[in-house]
UniProtKB/TrEMBL annotation:
Pfam families: PheRS_DBD3, tRNA-synt_2d
Domain of life: Eukaryota
Residue span, Aminoacyl-transfer RNA synthetases class-II family profile domain: 230-519
Keyword Aminoacyl-tRNA synthetase included in the entry's annotation: yes
Listed EC numbers: 6.1.1.20
Keywords recorded for this protein, A-Z: Aminoacyl-tRNA synthetase, ATP-binding, Ligase, Nucleotide-binding, Protein biosynthesis
Protein name: phenylalanine--tRNA ligase
UniProt cross-references to SUPFAM superfamilies, sorted A to Z: Class II aaRS and biotin synthetases (SSF55681)
Name of the top EC class for this enzyme: ligase
Region (Disordered): 350-371
GO biological process: phenylalanyl-tRNA aminoacylation
Any single GO CC term annotated in Swiss-Prot or TrEMBL for this entry: cytosol
Keyword GTP-binding: no
Length: 523
C-alpha cells in the first residue's frame, strides 16, 4: 500500500531506500527492509500494477563483536570509563581492571587507550588523563548498523573490516514505475471464469490473474510399476525373444504330489517339513491326482524303476495329498511337463485323463515313428512361499524366475550354453558353475556370477538336468531330456536398484514414493 500510495503521489519511486515503512521512523535503507519491499514488488508486478528495476549495492553489517561494541562502547572507551581520574583517588591495578571489564577488553582496551593518550601509568596502577573522550568506533558502528555504510567514506570502513567488526553484504534497492493495471487498491484477481461472472457481465471489468505457463502441473495420481514388475518385464522379454512360452502359474496352492512327489523329492526330505513349508489346514487335502501317473510316481519312489533303485521307503498317500503353498515354481513346471507328455502317453493334450487304452495307442505311435513328443521352451516368473526366518535378504515369499527346455538328446552343455546366452542378455557375462544337489536333477549346477560392485562371486541360480525318475513316469520317451533352472527375481532387482535390505523392496515398509520414482530397467 505504501508503494502504491507513493507512486500515486509522485508517479515514480527513484530509490526504495527513501521509503519509510509503516512502524519505522527511519528510511528503509537496511537490507531487511529492502527484502520486505521486494516481496511487495513481486506481488504487485505479477498483477501488472507496477514495474520495477533492481540495483545492486554493497553494504555492511556488524559482526557479533561489532554489535557488542555498538551497544557497550569500544574496549578502549570501557577501560577509560572504569579508571579513576589522575589525582582523584587510588590508581586501579591491572588486575582490578581485568575483574571489572574482563581480560579481553582489559588487554585490547589498554593498548588502544594508551595509543590515544586517554590513560597513563601511575606507579603500579592506571589512571585516565583525557578529561573527555569521543568513542569513534562506537559512533561509526552505530552508523553502519543503521545505514549499512559510513558517510566518512571507504577508508574507515576498510579499517572496521580489518578489525573484524563489520563484514560486507550484497544488497539491493529498487526503482518503481506504475504498471498498466496500476491502481491504489489491490483487488484480488480472478483465477476462474464462472457462470455467474458471465451472466452478470462482471467478467468485463474483472481483473484476471495472468496465466503462468511456467507453472509445473500437479503430479498425476496414476499407478506406478513396482521395481520387481519392471525387472520381471525385462526378463520376460528376454525369454520371449529366445522363443519361450509363458507357463500358467496362478496356482499358489499345490499338493505335495506336484510340488515334491512328481519331482522325485523323497517323502522324507527335510524341505517338506513344516519349518520349511507352509501347509494348509482348510482344506488340508487335495483332490486325487491322475491315477495311472500317480501309481507310476509312487512306484518309482518306493521300489524304483526306469533304471533307478528308488528310495525304498514306504510311500504315504497322505503326504502326497497334503495341500501347501508352493515352495518353488518347479511345481508348475512339473504339471506343464506332464501335460507336454500327454501325446507321448497317447492322450489328447487338453484332456490329459489317462487310461490303459490310451497308453496302448502311445505304443502304436512309437511304431509309426512319431511318439507324439514336441520340443518345448517354457518359462514362468511368479511367487513362491517358504517358511523361513525373515532377515535383510530373506522373506517368507519371493518370486522365482524359471526356465525349462525339453528336447531330444539335450546335454549338460546345452544347459550351460543356454545359461551363458540368457545371463549375457541380462548384462551378466562372468559365470561359473558349481556341482550341486537337487532331488529332481542330475547333474545339478549352482550358477555364480561375478558381482563387479561387491567384487566377489555371488550365487544367482540353481539348475540341472531333470531325472529320468521324474520324466519317464510322465510318459516322455527315453531320449527326451529336459533341463531347467531357476533364479530369484528379487536378487537381480536389488542389485539393479542398489537395494541391500529386501524389506525396503517388498512389504509394509516400502515407500510408495520410491516405487513411483524408481527408474525403468534396461538390461
Ligand atoms: N526349483 C529350484 C529352486 O527352487 C530351481 C530349479 C529349477 C533347479 C529347475 C533345477 C531345475 O531353487
Amino acid at each position: 500500500q505504501l508503494v502504491l500510495d507513493t507512486l500515486d503521489k509522485f508517479g515514480t519511486i527513484q530509490d526504495t531506500r527513501t521509503l519509510v515503512l509503516p512502524g519505522y521512523t527511519d528510511p528503509a535503507a537496511s537490507h531487511d527492509s529492502q527484502i520486505i519491499i521486494l516481496g511487495a514488488l513481486n506481488s504487485l508486478s505479477s498483477r501488472e500494477m507496477i514495474s520495477y528495476t533492481t540495483h545492486e549495492t554493497v553494504s555492511h553489517v556488524l559482526t557479533p563483536e561489532g554489535a557488542q561494541i555498538a551497544l557497550q562502547g569500544s574496549h578502549e572507551a570501557r577501560v577509560w570509563n572504569e579508571l579513576p581520574r589522575k589525582g582523584d583517588g587510588a590508581p586501579m591495578t591491572p588486575k582490578q581492571l581485568e575483574e571489572r571489564v574482563g581480560s579481553e577488553t582489559a588487554k585490547i582496551g589498554q593498548g588502544r587507550a594508551f595509543k590515544n593518550k586517554w590513560i597513563s601509568k601511575e606507579g603500579d596502577g592506571l589512571v585516565k588523563i583525557a578529561p573527555s573522550i569521543e568513542d569513534n568506533t562506537q559512533v561509526e558502528l552505530r552508523e553502519v548498523d543503521s545505514t549499512g555504510t559510513l558517510k566518512s567514506g571507504e577508508k574507515p570502513l576498510a579499517e572496521l573490516r580489518k578489525r573484524k567488526l563489520i563484514v560486507q553484504r550484497k544488497g539491493q534497492w529498487f526503482t518503481i514505475k506504475k504498471g498498466p493495471a496500476f491502481s491504489t487498491s489491490i483487488a484480488k484477481p480472478e483465477t476462474d471464469l464462472t457462470i455467474d461472472m458471465l451472466t452478470s457481465g462482471s467478467w468485463k471489468t474483472s481483473t484476471y490473474k495472468k496465466y503462468n505457463f511456467e507453472a509445473e502441473g500437479l503430479p498425476t495420481n496414476g499407478g506406478a510399476l513396482h521395481p520387481l514388475l519392471k525387472v520381471r518385464e525385462e526378463i520376460r522379454n528376454i525369454f520371449l525373444e529366445m522363443g519361450f512360452a509363458e507357463m500358467p502359474t496362478s496356482s499358489f496352492v499345490e499338493s505335495g504330489f506336484w510340488c515334491f512327489d512328481a519331482l522325485f523329492v523323497p517323502q522324507q526330505h527335510p524341505a517338506r517339513e513344516v519349518q520349511d513349508t507352509f501347509y494348509l489346514s482348510d482344506p488340508a487335502e487335495s483332490l486325487p491326482p491322475p491315477t495311472a501317473y500317480y501309481e507310476r510316481v509312487s512306484k518309482v519312489h518306493e521300489h524304483g524303476g526306469y533304471g533307478s533303485t528308488g528310495y525304498r521307503a514306504p510311500w504315504s498317500d497322505a503326504e502326497s495329498r497334503k495341500l501347501l503353498l508352493r515352495t518353488h515354481t518347479t511345481a508348475s513346471s512339473a504339471s506343464m511337463l506332464y501335460k507336454l507328455a500327454a501325446k507321448c502317453r497317447g492322450e489328447d493334450e487338453d484332456k490329459s485323463t489317462e487310461s490303459a487304452a490310451a497308453h496302448g495307442s502311445s505304443a502304436q505311435a512309437e511304431k509309426g515313428g512319431d511318439d507324439g513328443f514336441r520340443p518345448a521352451k517354457l518359462f514362468s516368473i511368479d511367487r513362491v512361499f517358504r517358511n523361513e526366518t525373515m532377515d535383510a535378504t530373506h522373506l517368507a515369499e519371493f518370486h522365482q524366475v524359471e526356465g525349462v527346455v525339453a528336447d531330444r538328446g539335450l546335454t549338460l552343455a546345452d544347459l550351460i550354453g543356454f545359461m551363458r546366452v540368457f545371463f549375457k542378455k541380462m548384462g551378466i557375462e562372468n559365470l561359473r558353475f558349481k556341482p550341486a544337489y537337487n532331488p529332481y536333477t542330475e547333474p545339478s549346477l549352482e550358477i555364480f556370477a561375478f558381482h563387479p560392485q561387491l567384487r566377489k562371486w555371488v550365487e544367482v541360480g540353481n539348475s540341472g538336468m531333470f531325472r529320468p525318475e521324474m520324466l519317464e513316469p510322465m510318459g516322455f520317451p527315453k531320449d527326451v531330456h529336459v533341463h531347467g533352472w531357476g533364479i530369484s527375481l528379487e536378487r537381480p532387482t536389488m542389485i539393479r536398484y542398489g537395494i541391500n535390505n529386501i524389506r525396503t523392496l517388498v512389504g509394509h515398509k516400502v515407500s510408495l514414493e520410491s516405487v513411483e520414482n524408481s527408474p525403468a530397467v534396461r538390461f
